[in-house]
Amino acid sequence: MSKTTTRKSFIIHKDSLDILEKLSNEEAGILFKAICAYQQGSATQLNYPLDLVFLPFQKQFDRDNEKYLNTCKQRAEAGSKGGKQKVANASKSKQKVANVADSKSKSKSKSKSDSDKAFNEFYENYPKKTERKKTMSAFNKLSKDKQKLATEDSKTRYIEKIKEDGTNQFVPAPLVYINGERWEDERAVQQSTQRKVLSR
Predict the structure, then answer these.
(1) pLDDT digits over 18-52, tens only?
(2) What DSSP designation does 15 have?
């Protein structure tokens, strides 16, 4: 009886078919039916010479079946190992992602609070209060060095101008100040002092 009942197909090698030329059609039919019965798990009694002709087919089917079972076993073991490894890797990966996300959120919240502090210092010292959200967005896009320059400059730049005019009407909006990087501009007080010196 065949061990191949779990398989859905079987192979007949071409070089095995040469024997069919030596058989009559009736004997070839009986042989073919014996092969089919063997593959379905039942045995057929064959008479001489068909029992000798069937023997190489039977041995080849048994070898093929053994090879098939070994391949199935190896694939099952590999799949089991691979599956376990994938699960282990997935949990490690998820943990790494969670750790990275957690550290990013911590660093974002820390950097956000630092940038909020820096912006609040700038905005509190700036003499005009307009468009806070847009100004904050523009301020946060600046490098740390430019944020420091803007904050320091905004504390003193327009004090003299406001004292002279009595109003902050001609002070640019903070968003204009940041977008124009006005801390890089020459100071108006210095220019007016230079004009007074030159006009004397």
Answers:
(1) 888 888 899 889 988 988 888 888 888 888 888 88
(2) G
Sign of CA dihedral 186, 187, 188, 192: negative
Say how far apart CA 65 and CA 75 lie, in whole Å: 15
Lowest mean per-residue pLDDT among 93-102, 129-138, 153-162: 93-102
Closest CA to 17 of 53, 61, 67, 64: 53
The domains of the chain are located at 4-85, 126-199
Q: Which pTM was predicted?
A: 0.40
DSSP state of 73: H
Place of tokens 């301020």: 139
How many CA atoms are closer than 13 Å to the CA of 28, on its beta-carbon side? 10
* Structure tokens, 55: 């023997």
